[in-house]
Amino acid sequence: MAMFGKTENGAGVTRSGGGGNLSFIGREVTITGNIGGSGNLHIDGTVEGDVAAASLILGPEGHVRGNIVADAAQISGTVDGTVAAKSLVIEATARINGDLSYDAVSVASGAQVEGRVKRLTRDAEPALKLIASE
Question: Is the pTM of this model over 0.70?
Answer without folding.
Answer: yes
